[in-house]
Amino acid sequence: MDHRIEIEMDGQAVTTLADIVPARGPLRVLFIGKTPSPASVEAGHYFEGRMGKGLWKRLDEVGLLHVAQGEFPDDHLLKNGFGMTDVCKLPRPFGEEPSEVEYADGWERVNRIIIRTRPRILTFVYKGALDKVLQYSFGWDHKSGYGFNDDLMRTFGRRVFAFPLPGVACTLRESQRHLADLAGSLNVV
Length: 189
What we know:
Layout: E1 4-9, E2 12-17, E3 29-33, H1 38-43, H2 53-61, E4 82-86, H3 100-117, E5 121-124, H4 127-138, E6 147-148, H5 153-156, E7 159-162, H6 172-185
Parallel strand pairs: 3-4, 3-5, 5-7
Antiparallel strand pairs: 1-2, 6-7
Helix pairs in contact: 3-4
C-alpha cells in the first residue's frame, strides 16, 4: 500500500505521507517522526531513507514488528496496535530543521491524533524532535534522554520514549537496553 497523499500547505499542493492511525484508539504505540524524508515520500512508505531504515531493523530485533522480506513495515503497523505520524508533514532531507511555528502547529495536529487514538506510549523517533516540541509547545528548555522519559508522563499524559536510532550518541548496549524496556512494557520479550 502506498501511503502518499497530497495536502495543501500555504496554498501549495505538497506530496507527503499520510498518518497511519486508526479512526479511534486505543493504540499501543504512536511513533512520531520529525518530518517525512524525500526518499520515504518517493517510496510511499515511512522511514525508507538510509537512517530511517534503522527504526524498522531495531523494532524487528526486539520482536515488536516482524515483516516478511520485500514487504514494507509501515503496512503492518495498525494490525500490531501501532500508529505513525510526523510533527511536520512537509518533506525535508535529513538535517533540514522545521521552524518553531511548524513545530508548534504540528504538535497541535499530533495532539489531536493522541486524544483520538489514546496511545499507551508516545515514541519520538528523533530525540531532538521531542526536545523541540517541549521547547516550542510547552516552553521548556529540557533535554530528554534516550529510552523512557518518565519525567514527561505528567506533561503528555502517557509514557514517552525517545528512540535510539543507529548512529546517535547512545552506545549499542544502552540502545539495546532501552529497546528491551520498550518491548517489555508492551509485554513482548
